[in-house]
Amino acid sequence: MHQKLTWLLIAIAIAGFAMAEIISKRYRDTVHATSNDTKLELLMSLSLLVFTQPLIVLVTDALCQRFAPHLRNAWSTLPWWAMTGILLVGDDMMQYWWHRISHSALLWPLHRAHHSASYMSIRVTYRNNFFYYLMMPGLWVGAVTLYLGFGTVYAAYVVVKLVVILGAHCAWAWDAPLYRIRALHPLMWIVERTLSTPATHRAHHAITNVDGIGHYKGNFGNLLFFWDVLFGTAHITRQYPEEVGLRDDQLFGAERWNHQMFYPLCQSSREYSALKFGGQIYSDESAVEMSLDGAADSAR
Question: Has residue 248 been placed in a domain?
Answer without folding.
Answer: yes
